[in-house]
């Protein structure tokens, strides 16, 4: 019975988290691009897994209720996210339209490597300045996990972290297997276009959802 409860809590966290993160979002696109380039892939996957587990754990511990009582914090966080997403999306679209085919390099050996700090900093901003991330992890998944009894809450968080690890691990593996596709400059144009549109749409969505000032 005890083992069954632990397994049920772990499985609940795994399935709920997996159902939410399997979508083409800003974070997934960023990890996809880094995996295709073969630059700091493991670090990106590790960041995504740890950040998901931490945010879900905070939600389970009740942090979502605390943040909901501080609308100014959510507003400033959202404004910063909008500015970053607008800049990131606009730059991606600029690359798609302005870079001549001769200079669009897809071979990861030809792309100037970015430092680990720069890669993780951009990923952190994409993750933490996106209010939708908090809605998914802290509010939705966290509130479900909070219903578990006692230490089973943390088995739920562990299950959610395992789902995150499985998804981002599979995403990075698939992306690396797709390097042949991205040997063509047009593939990078399409990815940049998809990234730019997604970022601008997300910026608009975040802006529309910002709490009004008092």
UniProtKB/TrEMBL annotation:
<keyword id="KW-1003">Cell membrane</keyword>
<dbReference type="InterPro" id="IPR001123">
    <property type="entry name" value="LeuE-type"/>
</dbReference>
<keyword id="KW-0812">Transmembrane</keyword>
<feature type="transmembrane region" description="Helical">
    <location>
        <begin position="187"/>
        <end position="207"/>
    </location>
</feature>
<feature type="transmembrane region" description="Helical">
    <location>
        <begin position="6"/>
        <end position="32"/>
    </location>
</feature>
<feature type="transmembrane region" description="Helical">
    <location>
        <begin position="154"/>
        <end position="175"/>
    </location>
</feature>
<keyword id="KW-1133">Transmembrane helix</keyword>
<protein>
    <submittedName>
        <fullName>LysE/ArgO family amino acid transporter</fullName>
    </submittedName>
</protein>
<keyword id="KW-0472">Membrane</keyword>
<feature type="transmembrane region" description="Helical">
    <location>
        <begin position="115"/>
        <end position="134"/>
    </location>
</feature>
<feature type="transmembrane region" description="Helical">
    <location>
        <begin position="44"/>
        <end position="67"/>
    </location>
</feature>
<dbReference type="Pfam" id="PF01810">
    <property type="entry name" value="LysE"/>
</dbReference>
<feature type="transmembrane region" description="Helical">
    <location>
        <begin position="73"/>
        <end position="94"/>
    </location>
</feature>
């Amino acid at each position: 019975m005890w083992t069954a409860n632990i397994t049920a809590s772990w499985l609940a966290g795994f399935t709920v988290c997996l159902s939410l993160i399997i979508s083409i979002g800003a974070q997934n696109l960023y990890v996809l691009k880094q995996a295709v380039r073969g630059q700091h892939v493991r670090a990106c996957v590790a960041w995504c897994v740890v950040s998901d587990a931490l945010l879900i754990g905070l939600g389970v511990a009740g942090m979502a209720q605390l943040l909901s009582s501080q609308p100014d914090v959510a507003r400033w966080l959202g404004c910063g996210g909008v500015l970053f997403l607008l800049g990131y999306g606009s730059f991606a679209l600029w690359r798609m339209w302005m870079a001549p085919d001769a200079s669009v390099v897809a071979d990861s050996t030809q792309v100037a490597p970015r430092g680990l700090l720069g890669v993780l900093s951009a990923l952190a901003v994409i993750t933490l300045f996106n209010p939708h991330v908090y809605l998914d992890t802290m509010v939705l998944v966290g509130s479900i996990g909070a219903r578990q009894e006692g230490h089973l809450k943390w088995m739920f968080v562990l299950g959610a972290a395992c789902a995150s690890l499985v998804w981002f691990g599979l995403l990075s593996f698939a992306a690396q297997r797709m390097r042949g596709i991205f040997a063509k400059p047009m593939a990078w144009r399409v990815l940049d276009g998809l990234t730019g549109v997604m970022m601008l749409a997300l910026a608009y969505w975040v802006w529309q959802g910002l709490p009004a000032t008092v």
